[in-house]
Every structure is written in C-alpha cells, then in structure tokens.
Amino acid sequence: MRKNCSKDVSRERRIEILFVFGVFLFYFLWSCTQRYNFSSDESMRYQIPQFIYEYGKLPRGDEPLIRNEDWGISYAFNPILSYMASAVLMKGMSLFSTDEWMLLISARFVNVLLGALTAWVVLKTAKLLFPRRYAWMFTTLVVFLPGNVILYSYVNCDALAMCSTAIIFYSWVKAYKEGWSWTTCAVSAVGMGICFLSYYNAYGFLLCSALLFAGMMLKCGEQQWNYQEMLKKGFFMLGIVFLFTGWWFIRNGIMYDGDILGMT
Questions:
Q1: Residue 221's pLDDT is what?
Q2: Whole-model pTM above 0.85?
Q3: Is residue 181 predicted with pLDDT exceeding 70?
Q4: 205-212: long-range contacts at Cβ-Cβ below 8 A with a sequence spacing of 24 or more?
Q5: By Cβ atoms counted within 10 A, which residue in 15, 121, 131, 240 is the most buried?
Q6: What are the phi and psi torsion angles at 218 (to 5°)?
Q7: Residue-wise pLDDT tens digits, 247-258
C-alpha cells in the first residue's frame, strides 16, 4: 500500500515538473516571436536594463539617457529589480553574442522564468484549495490566460508583481489551512519583499497581508489577541522584508530628497 502511495506521489511530481517545463517552453517561444516594443512601452522599460548593461550602474529616474522627452519621466523612478536581473542575463549573453535581438531575448528571459515560477506556485495553491482535477483545471486557465502569456513575453516589471502576489496568496491559503508557522511567515515575507520591488499597483496585497495576518492571530474561540506570538512573527516578517527592500527605499530617500517612493 505504501509503495503504491509512494509511486503515485512520485508520478504526480513528475507530471508537475513536466507541466512547469511545458509552461516555461511555451512562454519562451512566445517571447522569441514577439516583435520589439509590441506592447508600446517595452522600449522605455528596456532602456533601464540596457543602461545597467552598458554602464554597470543603476540609473537615476531623471537620467537624461533614459528619460522620455514626451512624458518627462522614466521607469527608473519605479522599483527596477526585474530590470537588474535582465541586465545580468544580458551581460551573460554578451559573452557569446552582442546581437541586439539576442540581448533583448535574454532580457525577456527573466520574465519567462518568473512565469514558470508563477505557474508552479499557482499549482501548489490550487492543490490546497481544490480536488486534484479542478486544481489542474484552475491552474491551466490561469497560466494560459492570454493576458498572462503576453505579460511574460516582454520586458516589464508586472511579471515580477504577478509572481510575488502568487507567492503571497499561497501563504494566505497555507496559513488558513495550517496556521502561521514560521515557514509560512518566511514565505509570505519573501513574497512581500519581492512585491515591494515590483510595481506600486500591487501594493494592495501588502496591506491585505498585514490585515489578514493580524486578524488570523486572533484566537477565535477565546476572542483574545495573542500579542506575543503576533509581535514575534510580525517582526520576523518585517526583518525579512527590510533585508529585501530597505536598500531601494534608502537609496530613493537619499537621491530624491526624502521621496522614498520616487513619485514626486
């Protein structure tokens, strides 16, 4: 009986790996077929990894080389973590080829990887929420949603936002099922840290996470707050988030006269 159970788990794991690899391959091929700037703002976004790749430093938001003359701004005022990763892959690609198209594909490759990671996280979440058949159906519908496919095929920071919110949502479901263990707290904190460095329009998930965490630490039966455990785990999560994000907001505060969000 145990052997059969072990075989079923092993078989399911292989199916999951094949599925995620298939998603990765699909996104990668899609990214290779999209013309440059098909999304209308890829050129402005791609300027940032290009700048890092060429000059070996992070740009200011008002850097003349990347500032759009029509809009008067650049995407470098926003968090640029995914663009930094793109620049690293571009530098790696340059060891073999400096062809402009190959450099663009290597920059897009970051989002392809994020898409595959998101697919894996969505599948894990779905298996906690639904029976096996419906879990696979839910995951497939999410992963191959046309908007999702487009999102992971060009240079942007929205893909990182989607991946981070998928991780955060997974931690919510995990906490609902099993409580806020230290592992779940760490997973949630990592997701929130990545979210902070993705895109400002995803910050609603951060507020929801704080409210959900505080609410779930309430002992429903006794109607009493477990302040001690909440503070311990809360500061633990804040510490992880600060390690991920502190450098960016400190940098903004120094460069933009205290404007840590770079919005002014």
A1: 45
A2: yes
A3: yes
A4: 205/164, 205/165, 205/168, 205/169, 209/168, 209/171, 209/172, 212/172, 212/175
A5: 121
A6: -70, 130
A7: 999 999 999 888
> What's the token pair of residue 11?
């078989």
CA geometry: angle 102, 39, 26, nearest 5 deg: 60
Of 204, 200, 197, residue with least CA distance to 251: 197
Sign of CA dihedral 96, 97, 102, 105: positive
Token duo for residue 21: 């690899």
120, two tokens = 């894996």
Between CA 168 and CA 149 the distance in angstroms is 21
Q: Where are the beta strands (DSSP E) in the chain?
A: 218-219, 224-225
Residue owning tokens 């059969």: 4
Q: CB-hemisphere CA count at 13 Å for 228? A: 0
Closest CA to 38 of 170, 128, 153: 153
> How many residues appear in the chain?
264
- Taking each helix axis from N to C end, the angle separating 204-216 and 227-255, rounded to the nearest 10 degrees, works out to 160
Strand partners, 219: 224
C-alpha distances (whole Å) from 186 to each of 38, 128, 170, 237, 259 are 38, 18, 12, 6, 29
| Token pair of 152 as six digits | 């992971």
Helix (H, G, I), strand (E, B) or coil at 54: helix
Residue appearing with tokens 């502190």: 246
